[in-house]
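It is worth pausing here to work through a concrete case rather than discussing structure prediction in the abstract. The textbook approach is simple: state the sequence, then state the predicted structure, then interpret. We follow exactly that order.
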Amino acid sequence: MDHSGHGGMRGLLGAYGMTRDGSGTSWQPDSAPMAGIHGSAGEWSTMLHGFATTVYDDQGGPRGDTKTFTASMLMLMGQRQAAGGTLGLRGMVSLDPTMGKGGYPLLFQTGESANGVDPLVDRQHPHDFLMEMAGTYSRPLTDDSSVFVYGGLPGEPALGPPAFMHRFSGMANPEAPLTHHWLDATHITFGVVTLGAVWRDWKIEASSFNGREPDQDRWNIDTGKFDSASVRLTWNPTRHWSLQVSTGRLESPEQLEPEVSVKRTTASATYDAEVAPGHWQATLAWGRNNKDPGATTDGWLLESALRMRKVHTVFARAEHVGKDELFDHDDPLHGRVFEVDKLSIGYQYDFYRMRHATFGVGGLVSGYRYPGELEPAYGNDPVSYMVFIQARLE
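Step two, the predicted structure:
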């Protein structure tokens, strides 16, 4: 294989550069950095990308916990010309299931189940071993327009911004956002088909997919009918910006609440640029979950990362989200919506670089603001922190 550059790869969905492609069929700014090992094999252009991060996690307060775990991802992507268009294949796996079904401690995080009986509260679920097995085919209509189809088992429907671990603004942060289930939790969906069209710097797409979130068996392939749908409009007005709005109905997404469906609406803006000391990206995103039946809650996220001299990375994430799943059914506070604020600030130092791998160490600290009614459960001003070591392919 030839690893001498990008191997001639172009955008999977149309006539643009490959750096625009994010997770699934999402877009990021054209100026965003594209990490990975690029090469070619016959008529295929390829990219291999991945990371493994070992984390010591200490979440403060009465509901906090400690744990050492490893989060990881390995992705192989290939594309070639076929029948007058572009064929793309992508496979992505993770060893996150080795964390155990309970995932890792994360104050105020909610969503999915540990064992099919108990909800995960104040913990982040592990990703499935199979994160994506998907293919795309795009065909040009004119010099600046194209149509495409995407299918995955699992895959990612046209809903929300690029997944948090694929955004430069968020990938240095080892913890999942509290707004994950308001913005990008559908990035692992077991069954999805998307049809779309690209015209210049615009993209419109619609998906049909299985709305149920992955179950507690993280090593297998889930099955289910295509019962949910979404649409997304994306615009990259310049090479530094990517804007999207999307909405979808998720039929019975939660295993423990099969009678509840969710209408999810999101909007996001990502700005990316080279700056004097290095590279900077920021993402502002909003998501709304309208449960049927149930409460309507909003989540806001603002995150940013600045990499300086390819060695130092400073990152931060601020969130405001309405949480209604913090207490069990038999608790008087069950179903109440509590507005929670979180601020995380961190730093990563890349101390060793090989030809295709970089090793770094880092840490972050998080603080919270929440209503006084939560103090008996969460204490006064808990502080959480993580320290980590990471290896990634570049």
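Step three, interpretation. The chain has one domain: 18-393. The domain at 18-393 is CATH 2.40.160.10 (Porin).
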